[in-house]
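Annotated sample (chain length 457).
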Amino acid sequence: MVSATATNFKDWRESARVLLRAGISPVEVTWTEGFQQPLFESLTAPDAQPPTVPRKFLELAETVASHRDANRWGLLYDVLYRIVHGERNLLEIEVDPSVRALLLMQKEVQRDIHQMHAFVRFRKIAADDGERFVAWYRPDHYILERAAPFFVERFAAMRWAILTPHASALWDGREISFGPGVPRSEAPPEDQLDDLWRTYYKSVFNPARLNLEAMRTEMPVRRWAALPESRAIGELVQDAQSRVDRMIANAPTSAAPFVPRTRDLSVLREAARICEGCDLFRCATQAVFGEGPATARLVLVGEQPGDQEDRAGRPFVGPAGEVLNRALREAGVPRDDLYVTNAVKHFKFEERGKRRIHQTPSGAEVSACRPWVETELEVIRPRLIVCLGATAALSIFGRVVRVTRERGRFFPHPLGGEVTPTIHPSAILRIPEPDRADAEYGLLVRDLRTAWERIAL
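Output written by the structure step:
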C-alpha cells in the first residue's frame, strides 16, 4: 500500500500524477488529509509526461477538492485512473457509484458557495487608518478561496475581511490574501449595519410572493443565526396577508408619487426599489434602474428587465445584453459611455414550472412607469435616445411606433435632443432562421453605429 496526502486540489493533482506514472491503482493507495510531502520521488519516471484528461474532469476535481468529505481524494483518483486507462467517457455514466458521489459533492460545494455569496454580512469597525468591514461566516465546506472573487468584485472599494473557522480572507483594496481560520468569538459584535440590513429586508419583502417552503430552501434556517434580518422574518410572515390586502386596496396607477424631486441618479435608484406604481412590483424580485454616467450623450432605452436582470438588479446582463454588448463593440460604441435603462422597471412574466416566461408590458404599465424614464432623461439630457423595440418606443414617443418602418429616422424630443427606434436585441434571439437573424443583427449594428456617429458630429 502507498500512503498519499492532500489538503487542496494542487496537492492532490501532484500526488495523482506521480501515482499514475508509477502505475499505482486506486486500491493500492490510502489517502489522508494533510500537507503534500515528497514521498513519491522514487516512483517518478523522469521522462514521463503527465496524462491528458478531459477538461470536464479537471473542473469537477477543482470543485470537489473544496468538499469537506475526506473520501473525496480517493474517489477522484479512482475516477481519474479509470479515465486514463480507457474509460474516457466515464463522467457521462452518472449511475457509476464513484461518479455519482463526485457529482453530488460538486453540487453541494456549488450550493455552499451560492449561500455564502447570499448570506455573508459585513460589520463596520473603526481602525486607525480608516473604516474596515469584517464578516464571520461558517460554510459547510472549504470554499472561501473559491467564493472570495465574488466579494472582491462586489466590494472592491471597501477594505474587508471574511473570517471562517477554516480560513480567512483579507482584501486591502488592491490584492487579496488568505490566512488561518478564526473562531466566532473573535468576530466583531452587532453594530448599526445590522439595523440597516433589517430595514432593507423589510423594504424589499414582498408579501404577495410569500412561499415558506421556497424561503426555507433558499434561506436555510441553520443560516438565520448569522443573518441580522432573520429577526424580522416572523413579524413579516405573520403580517403578510394583511399587507397584501392593503396593497390591493391602495394600489396606485402611476409611479409619479414614488419619484423624488432630485437630480441625483443614486437617490433615484434607491427610491425605485420601493416603487409600487403598478402591479408588476408584486411578483418581480426588485426594480431594475438605469445604469451609466449622468453625463452620457447617448441613452439606450429597452423594454423591461428579463429574468437574469430581475435577479441581478442590473439592466441588459442576460442573453439580450450579450447580443447588445456584441453589437456595441462591432459598432464601435463604448457601453461605459452610455446610459442604459428600460421603459418598465419591473419584470413581467408568466410562471411555467420553474421557468419565468417574459410577457410584454401593457400600455397602462408602460404609462405608469413613464415618470421614472422621464426623470432619468431630465437628469441626463442626452443628445440622442435610442429606443430598443416597440415598447421602449411607445414610452418615449408616447404613441405606437412601427420600428421596421421608422428605424434610421431621427425625431426631435424635448428631453433628449433626438430619438430614433431600432430592434430590441431579444427579438433577434427569437428569430428561428439564422440568415434572417444575422440580417437583423447587422441592421442593429448599423443603427447603433449611425447613432454614435450622429452625436459625434
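Annotation: Residues 97-119 form the longest helix (23 residues).
Annotation: The two ends are 77 Å apart (CA to CA).
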